[in-house]
Amino acid sequence: MRRPLIALSALALCGLIATQTFAKDITVRGKLKKTVEAGGWVIVAEKQKYLILNARTFQNEKWFAEGTEVEATGVIKSGVMTIYMEGKPFEAHSMRPFEQSESGTNGAASRGLSR
Predict the structure, then answer these.
(1) Is 77 a domain residue?
(2) I need a labelling partner for 54 at 20 to 30 A (CA). Which of 25, 79, 80, 109 fits?
(3) How confident is the model at residue 6 (pLDDT cuts 50, 70, 90)?
């Protein structure tokens, strides 16, 4: 009885590690906004909020301010517990300001990605 339980537990653990290791990168566009709780930042997209888990990585950038339109690439971290009560936990690998020009092209293409 004990061996099948151990085998099942090991299989579940391997599945969990595999999903975290092979998490798919997504690109999110939206406005930066402070969370209600102190110190947190979210990207507010059309119908979703993404809680930036590593906001301190980008906070020294001149463009990192509330209301800035940004484009971020990263992964959603399911199963992460935070003190913040809003947004899907999101770890950004890169983030940059994003300006939509009137013609619908990316006006910020000449700006580099920040890490």
Answers:
(1) yes
(2) 109
(3) confident
